[in-house]
Each structure stands twice: as structure tokens, then as C-alpha cells.
Amino acid sequence: MPRLFTALLLLALPTFDGTAAVAPSDETTEVDRWYAALVDGKPVGWMRSRLVRRGSKLETTNVQKMSVRRGALTIDIEIEETFLETADGVPLMSRSVQNFAGQKISRTMHFADDVIIFTTRQRDHTRTEQFPITDREWLPPAAAERYARSQLARGAKTIRFRTITALVGRKPVMSNHEYVSTEPIELFGRTVTAQRWKVVTSIASTVPMTTWIDDEWNMLKTTMSLGGLIEVSFVAADEKLAKRSIEPPELVARTLLVPDRLIAAPRKVRSATYMVSVTNDTAEARGALARLPDAGYQRVHRDGASSRSVRITVDLDRDLASGAPPRPACLRPSTMINSDHPAVIALARKALGDTPDDAPDRVRARALCRFAHGFMKQRDLSVGFASASEVAETAQGDCTEFGVLLAAMLRVTRIPSRTVSGLVYTESFLGQSHVFGYHMWTQAWIDGRWMDFDAALNPTEFDATHITMSTSAWSDDDTVEGMLEVIPLFGQLSIRVQTPR
Fold this sequence. Notes:
With 501 residues, this protein is of the alpha+beta class. Helices cover 17% and strands 45% of the residues.
């Protein structure tokens, strides 16, 4: 859940850096803006946006620091994004550093004439790749600001542009801005007149944002909703107000769903049927419900794309669903599923032990799942979101760490893999009993089908109390898109258990 919250916050970075125009100069010039980060109106941290000009180069920097809670544990989130470009909009370098509860990952993109040099660093491991530049129809952040400001001055009511950032990946992100109204807003006791715009990005088309700007395209406030659960806001402030004492919100317990009946011995259930419905009849929620996939052991039965309910069957005793074949990304190492790391490779070899190299993929996958289940020594919610190599070195985490570790070990053995985000039934979690909670597990491409494996809960057999909502290969170009697809369903679902009774 915190990584979904963080993904939402990242959406504001490439689009609204809050900087003002900087006049040409050979001297160092700085524009510095501060924002308070709020969840449901309560302070959780801050964001700082700076634009510095040194001679002919512009450097845009955004820094976010926030804290949230998972149960009783507080998770600190730090994100820094820097973009260097020339005054006339030629990209030079983009760098991001993210730190989730001590798991630090840095990404750097250097722009050459015809290639992007993409470097990722985690602890002592560095990966560098080169990609040809095939798409040049995008703008660096300062150039995007100038373009948007010029369009605003001309009276445009629709403004679109594409940007790129190392934090999200090398795929450009389209931002679409639609004017709504001009109205007064409150900024910590101060009333100002602002223009209200609706913003939708290509990376999160299901999560629209509302932003209020002044007549110079400077951001005053941005809000976005995480389904029906929480509202996230950035509000313009001075440094002292932005850095005031925070109240980290608990994000996990509020996502738990209580079904209409109990499920006995959930880890042994081999077949189950659920009626899953949206409680708030919005187009976004219905659309997200309609996108729930047939995958692995799951089949989704729909009455129509606009239906408020779907019937989901999970059956371990019938043929696996025929899903789309794996993309190349399901075998390649990535920042989070870094199957090329020596520690991950060593674990995969240890896990297979005496298993013959020519053993069926199903046999090898089950051996890896059993090993991953027993390998994790410290199981708690204190880890923000660790990569596979970090898990291999610390043996600590929760379901997400189990999921990426197993996925990485599968790729080491040349079995395509991806992770699954969804719901699982548990008899007890965070003081609540008999609930569905958001969970992550792994799928492996075996015998022409995707097969589910849950190293966190089921070392030998999967069970039918899992409901798949989205899948992700964790390519460095789509690290958050799969998760963002299901956000419209947060706080909007009800589950009726039809079988088992």
C-alpha cells in the first residue's frame, strides 16, 4: 500500500514543478517553492521545487519527504528528482534517488545524440544500459513549463505536453490539462483566486488530478484521490509551514475488506467463487472492475463492460487460463527484479540444489517457491519496498519482498515471471479477523500458461482465496502502471463469498 501511495505522489513531479520563468543570465538564478504534503488534510511531509540557472544550463530539482504507517510501524519515504537541460530545451541528464525505509535506489539517464544511457545503482550493484532515442516528441521540465505558460497566456483551455523522467522510466509521459473554472481557494488561511484544471497523465489515466494554478502557471494546490480511501494534496506554503510536525497516517488497515461470510481453512481451499462489486458507481471504478484479468487459476465472468459486479472463479483443479504470452521484460533483469545480481543468482542455484537442469519448469518453480518461503527470516511490515537483491542480502520483508525475490530467481533459471497485485483472505491481520487484504505474489510462465505461486503464504500449494487484480513485469519503464490501474477500486469494493460455503 505505501508504494501505491508513493506512486500517486510521483505523478505530480514531471508536470508541476512549480517554477517560474527565469530570465536569460550568466549568473546563478534560483526560484524556490515549498509545498505541504497532506493526506486527508493532515500533514505527512513536504515537497520542495527549485529551478537554478547557471550560465546556459537549467537544473530543476524536486524533493519529497513523507512518512506513512503500516500498522504500528512508520515508513519514511524520500524522493529526489533532478533534471539538467540547456536554456533552449536540450535534455542533458535526469537523475532520481528514492529511499523507501532504507532501501535506496538511484537512476540516472544521460542523453547523448542518439542514445539514452540509463544507469541504476543499488548498494554495491550498478547496471548500465543504452537505448536508442526513437521518440523525440517530448520536453524537459523547464521547457515544458515555458510551453504551458505560453499556452496559458494565449488563452488555451486545453494544454498537452509530454515529459520524461528517470524516476518513471525512459518512456515519455503525456500530461493532458483541461481548464475547469476560476475560483477562490484557501491556502492555510489565505484566500487567493486560482484557475482550476483537471489533469490526466498517460501513466495513470484512471487517477485524475485537480490542480489550481495562478496566472503564471505556478502550482498553488494539487489534489488526487486514492480510490475512496484517502485524498492526497500538495499545498503551497513557506518552508516553516511545509516542515511542521507531521501525523503519519496508517494506510494498510483501512484497505482491509470484510466479506459477507467466513472461509474455513483458507490455505487449503482449492476452488472458490466470489461476487465482487463496486459500492460507488463511478465510471473509473466500473472500468477498473472490467479490467480484472483472466490469469493463472482465475476466471472473470462479466455481464457487460458497464456492470457494477463480476463473478470470479479461482479453481486449482481446472486448466489454467490462457493468457497473453510473456513479454521480453518478463525475462530481463530490472531495477526491482534484478535477476542479474550475484546474490540473487547464488540463491537461485542454492534453491535448486540437486534438482536436475532438465527438470520440468513446474518442478523447478516449486523448488524455488519452497526455498523463498523458508529463506525469509524476518517477516514484518518495516520494509518499504526492497528489490530482489536487497531481499537476498537481508532476508527481510513482507509479501512484496517474497514476490520480487521469487520472480527474480525464476528469471535466473530462464522461466519468465511477473508479480501479481490482488487480494487474499486471511484469518487475522493487524487486529482484524477474517478479512481480504491487498497482497502480492508471483506468476511463472509454464507449459504455455501463467501459473500462480505464493512464496509468502503457500510454500507447496497455491490456494483459491487469492483474487488477481493486476500483473506487472516490473520493467524499468512501467514500475507503477500496473498498480495504478486498480487504485479506483480502493475503498470501493464489496465481496460476497458464493463458494466455498
